Amino acid sequence: MIRVLLAEDQAMVRGALSALLNLESDIEVLGSAPDGEAAWREIQRLKPDVLVTDIEMPGLTGLELAQRIQRHELPIKVIIVTTFARPGFLRRALEAGVSGYLLKDAPAENLAEALRMVHRGGRSIDPQLALDAWSEADPLNDRERQVLRLAGEGQSASDIATQLHLSHGTVRNYLSEAIGKLGVGNRIEAYRLARQKGWL
C-alpha cells in the first residue's frame, strides 16, 4: 500500500485528488493539508511514503517543503502537481530532491501511475519540461529570491528586513543584486520576470 499525504490550498482540488486516489486499490490517502506549515506537521505525524503537493501555497511553498524533507533526510518521496509549466520551477524542484513533477492538466490516471513509479524508486517528470529546464539557468541565489518574492508581494525594504532579521541596507543590496542579474530597471520588473521564468 502506498501511503499518501496531499498538500493543496484549493479545497476543491484537494478533495478531487483525494477522491481520485482513494479509488486505487494500492493507494491510501492518509490525510490532506491546506498549506505548507500544516503539511509539515502532518508529515511528522502521519509519516507518509509520498507527499503530493502544489507549489504555491500559504506559509511554506511545495518547493520549500521538499527542501525541508531533503534537509531532514526523511524517507518521503515528493511529487509536485502544479499548473506551472515553468522550467525554472522544475529545475529547483529537482535540486530539492523531488521525484515527480506533473501538470494539473495531465490525464488523471497519470498521477496514480506517477505515485507507483516514484514509490518504486523511479521518477515521473513531464519530458518536454525536463528538456526545457536545462535551457536557461536561474541567476538568483536563495536569499535574493526570498527578498524579491516579498518585495513583489508589496512589502517595503523595512518590512522585509524585520521579517528576515536582516539590516535595511542588506535587503536593499539583495534587491539591487537581483535587479542587476535580471537586467531590468526596478524590483517590480525583476519580480515579474523571475515569476515568469519560474525562479520565484
UniProtKB/TrEMBL annotation:
Gene3D superfamilies in UniProt: 3.40.50.2300
Keyword tags: DNA-binding, Phosphoprotein
Superkingdom, taxonomy of origin: Bacteria
GO biological process: phosphorelay signal transduction system; regulation of DNA-templated transcription
InterPro entries: CheY-like_superfamily, Sig_transdc_resp-reg_C-effctor, Sig_transdc_resp-reg_receiver, Tscrpt_reg_LuxR_C, WalR-like
Entries under PROSITE patterns matching the protein: HTH_LUXR_2, RESPONSE_REGULATORY
The Response regulatory domain, residue ranges: 3-119
GO molecular function: DNA binding
Modified residues (4-aspartylphosphate): 54
UniProt keyword DNA damage present: no
Domain HTH luxR-type: 133-198
UniProt name for this protein: Transcriptional regulator
Organism per entry: Dyella thiooxydans
